[in-house]
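Supplementary Note 3. Input sequence used for the single-chain structure prediction.
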Amino acid sequence: MKKLGGVVAALLVAGCNGSGDKSESAGVDSERIDCALEGAKAFDRDCTVSEMRGADGTTLVVGRPDVGYRRLQITTDGRGVVSADGAEPANVTIVGEGMIEVAIGADRYRLPANTGGAK
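The predicted structure, written as discrete structure tokens, is reproduced below.
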């Protein structure tokens, strides 16, 4: 497993603003991302991600096709993201140049990230 040392706060926000498929959800622009839900081995481009900015920083809302969602808080300490829902931890792994995989329970999400400083 690769270390996340250089993944920074702008990691996902910058990546989500222009390269993925767009979708509209409740009037909010969302980007389509790959996800493997409920233990699936294969990834499908079925999930969406949008951002919310607030006093506590930036939170990503990852939407599922079954109308469920997960919230991920972007960190500034090199971890990338943490689960903002608190129930299950988010395990983050760098899976390629500019891409991280976030596993929460039996679900996995692939998100664009600034992985340039990771070792």
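The longest strand covers residues 44-54. Confidence is low (pLDDT under 50) at residues 1-19, 23-28.
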